[in-house]
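Structure (tokenized):
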């Protein structure tokens, strides 16, 4: 997965949903957690300002396990992520 055109300065919390045939996964990250993530790349395009991308691949998806949430906890986890900002 490649989350593109991330504008971390323009929001407080990101909710990512990935859908496969057999599973749906949810991640909740604060904008600060995005900006400081080792997989986040600032400047998606040459000359771009304030926008980046984050690649989630087979070899790094487990780095995001701590951000994965259950759907029933989504609202509470969004509030907690806001506090982590």
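Design, position by position:
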């Amino acid at each position: 997965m490649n989350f593109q055109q991330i504008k971390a300065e323009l929001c407080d919390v990101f909710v990512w949903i990935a859908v496969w045939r057999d599973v749906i996964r949810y991640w909740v990250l604060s904008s600060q957690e995005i900006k400081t993530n080792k997989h986040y790349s600032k400047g998606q395009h040459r000359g771009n300002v304030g926008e980046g991308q984050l690649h989630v691949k087979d070899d790094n998806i487990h780095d995001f396990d701590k951000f994965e949430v259950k759907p029933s906890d989504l609202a509470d986890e969004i509030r907690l992520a806001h506090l982590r900002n």
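Reviewer-requested clarification: The chain has one domain: 2-84. The helical segments are 31-35, 74-84.
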